[in-house]
Amino acid sequence: MEFNDFLQVVDSQHQDFAIQVNKYFIDAKCKMKMESKASGYVVSYAHPKTKRSLLNFVFRKNGLFVRMYPQNFDNNISFNNLPKSMTMEINKAPGCKDCSSKCQGFAFSIQNDKHYLCRYSFMFIVTEESKPILTDWVKTSLV
Asked: Fewest 10 Å CB contacts: which of 13, 33, 93, 101?
Protein backbone atom coordinates (compact mmCIF):
# COMPACT_ATOMS: atom_id res chain seq x y z
CA MET A 1 0.00 0.00 0.00
CA GLU A 2 1.15 3.50 -0.78
CA PHE A 3 -0.02 6.95 0.23
CA ASN A 4 -1.56 7.42 -3.24
CA ASP A 5 -3.87 4.46 -2.55
CA PHE A 6 -5.16 6.31 0.51
CA LEU A 7 -5.35 9.61 -1.38
CA GLN A 8 -7.58 8.10 -4.07
CA VAL A 9 -10.33 7.47 -1.52
CA VAL A 10 -10.04 10.88 0.19
CA ASP A 11 -12.72 13.37 -0.80
CA SER A 12 -11.22 15.71 -3.44
CA GLN A 13 -11.82 18.78 -1.26
CA HIS A 14 -9.52 17.30 1.42
CA GLN A 15 -6.77 15.84 -0.76
CA ASP A 16 -4.54 18.94 -0.60
CA PHE A 17 -4.81 18.91 3.20
CA ALA A 18 -3.87 15.22 3.34
CA ILE A 19 -0.92 15.81 1.00
CA GLN A 20 0.27 18.77 3.09
CA VAL A 21 0.02 16.85 6.38
CA ASN A 22 1.80 13.86 4.87
CA LYS A 23 4.60 16.14 3.62
CA TYR A 24 5.08 17.71 7.08
CA PHE A 25 5.51 14.29 8.67
CA ILE A 26 7.67 12.77 5.94
CA ASP A 27 9.93 15.86 5.93
CA ALA A 28 10.29 15.44 9.71
CA LYS A 29 11.43 11.84 9.11
CA CYS A 30 8.37 10.38 10.81
CA LYS A 31 7.49 6.78 10.11
CA MET A 32 4.26 6.29 8.15
CA LYS A 33 2.24 3.12 8.50
CA MET A 34 -0.85 2.26 6.46
CA GLU A 35 -3.46 -0.36 7.24
CA SER A 36 -6.63 -1.35 5.51
CA LYS A 37 -9.57 -1.58 7.91
CA ALA A 38 -13.27 -2.28 7.39
CA SER A 39 -14.01 1.46 7.42
CA GLY A 40 -11.15 2.26 5.01
CA TYR A 41 -7.48 3.04 5.25
CA VAL A 42 -5.83 4.13 8.49
CA VAL A 43 -2.64 6.14 8.01
CA SER A 44 -0.47 6.63 11.10
CA TYR A 45 2.61 8.75 11.67
CA ALA A 46 5.10 8.04 14.47
CA HIS A 47 7.84 10.27 15.83
CA PRO A 48 11.23 9.16 14.43
CA LYS A 49 12.96 9.03 17.85
CA THR A 50 10.27 8.30 20.42
CA LYS A 51 8.18 6.07 18.09
CA ARG A 52 5.07 7.61 19.67
CA SER A 53 2.02 8.12 17.49
CA LEU A 54 1.56 11.72 16.43
CA LEU A 55 -1.46 11.52 14.14
CA ASN A 56 -3.80 9.09 12.42
CA PHE A 57 -6.01 9.62 9.40
CA VAL A 58 -9.14 7.51 9.99
CA PHE A 59 -12.23 6.97 7.87
CA ARG A 60 -15.66 6.82 9.45
CA LYS A 61 -19.10 6.84 7.83
CA ASN A 62 -19.18 10.66 8.27
CA GLY A 63 -15.92 11.15 6.36
CA LEU A 64 -12.22 11.62 6.99
CA PHE A 65 -11.09 12.18 10.58
CA VAL A 66 -7.78 13.14 12.14
CA ARG A 67 -6.82 11.73 15.53
CA MET A 68 -4.15 13.78 17.28
CA TYR A 69 -2.39 12.83 20.49
CA PRO A 70 -2.36 15.82 22.87
CA GLN A 71 0.76 14.85 24.82
CA ASN A 72 2.64 15.87 21.66
CA PHE A 73 1.21 19.39 21.60
CA ASP A 74 3.30 22.39 22.52
CA ASN A 75 2.25 23.68 25.94
CA ASN A 76 1.45 27.01 24.30
CA ILE A 77 -1.35 25.60 22.16
CA SER A 78 -4.67 27.29 22.77
CA PHE A 79 -7.99 25.54 22.66
CA ASN A 80 -9.84 28.85 22.95
CA ASN A 81 -9.84 29.60 19.21
CA LEU A 82 -11.50 26.36 18.11
CA PRO A 83 -14.47 26.48 15.77
CA LYS A 84 -17.75 25.55 17.40
CA SER A 85 -17.84 22.17 15.63
CA MET A 86 -14.50 21.14 17.17
CA THR A 87 -15.53 22.39 20.62
CA MET A 88 -18.72 20.32 20.32
CA GLU A 89 -16.66 17.22 19.46
CA ILE A 90 -14.51 17.80 22.55
CA ASN A 91 -17.56 18.35 24.75
CA LYS A 92 -19.13 15.04 23.68
CA ALA A 93 -15.86 13.07 24.06
CA PRO A 94 -15.63 10.79 27.08
CA GLY A 95 -13.54 11.83 30.04
CA CYS A 96 -10.37 9.91 30.83
CA LYS A 97 -10.92 6.79 32.90
CA ASP A 98 -7.35 5.46 32.68
CA CYS A 99 -8.42 3.09 29.91
CA SER A 100 -4.94 1.75 29.26
CA SER A 101 -1.37 1.96 30.49
CA LYS A 102 -0.58 4.20 27.48
CA CYS A 103 -3.22 6.76 28.45
CA GLN A 104 -2.28 9.41 30.95
CA GLY A 105 -5.22 11.66 30.17
CA PHE A 106 -4.91 15.25 29.10
CA ALA A 107 -6.08 18.27 31.10
CA PHE A 108 -6.85 21.56 29.35
CA SER A 109 -9.34 24.43 29.35
CA ILE A 110 -11.63 25.96 26.77
CA GLN A 111 -12.82 29.42 27.85
CA ASN A 112 -12.19 28.48 31.51
CA ASP A 113 -14.21 25.27 31.10
CA LYS A 114 -11.90 22.50 32.35
CA HIS A 115 -11.61 19.18 30.52
CA TYR A 116 -9.77 15.96 31.27
CA LEU A 117 -9.95 13.68 28.24
CA CYS A 118 -8.55 10.35 27.18
CA ARG A 119 -5.59 10.64 24.83
CA TYR A 120 -7.66 8.80 22.22
CA SER A 121 -10.51 11.35 22.35
CA PHE A 122 -8.89 13.99 20.15
CA MET A 123 -10.49 12.90 16.89
CA PHE A 124 -11.88 15.57 14.59
CA ILE A 125 -13.67 15.41 11.27
CA VAL A 126 -11.75 17.12 8.48
CA THR A 127 -13.73 20.15 7.31
CA GLU A 128 -12.85 23.51 5.79
CA GLU A 129 -13.32 24.94 9.28
CA SER A 130 -11.09 22.42 11.06
CA LYS A 131 -8.24 22.18 8.53
CA PRO A 132 -6.39 25.38 9.61
CA ILE A 133 -6.49 24.35 13.29
CA LEU A 134 -5.42 20.78 12.52
CA THR A 135 -2.57 22.06 10.35
CA ASP A 136 -1.35 24.30 13.18
CA TRP A 137 -1.51 21.36 15.58
CA VAL A 138 0.48 19.20 13.17
CA LYS A 139 3.20 21.84 12.99
CA THR A 140 3.19 22.16 16.78
CA SER A 141 3.54 18.40 17.27
CA LEU A 142 6.67 18.39 15.12
CA VAL A 143 8.56 21.05 17.10
From this structure: 101
Query: What is the Cα–Cα distance from 51 to 97, expressed in whole angstroms?
Result: 24
- Rounded to the nearest 5 percent, the helix, strand and coil shares of the chain are 35, 30, 35
Instruction: Pick the closest to residue 65 from 95, 98, 43, 46 (CA basis).
Output: 43
Q: Is residue 59 part of a domain?
A: yes
Whether 109 is covered by a domain: the verdict is: no
pTM (2 d.p.): 0.84
Distance CA(51)–CA(43), nearest Å, equals 15
| Strand intervals (E) in 28-69 | 31-37, 40-46, 53-60, 63-68
Residue 68 near residue 122 (C-beta atoms within 8 A)? yes
Tell me: the pLDDT tens digits for 71-89?
Answer: 776 666 777 788 888 888 8
Q: Residues in the chain with pLDDT < 50? A: none
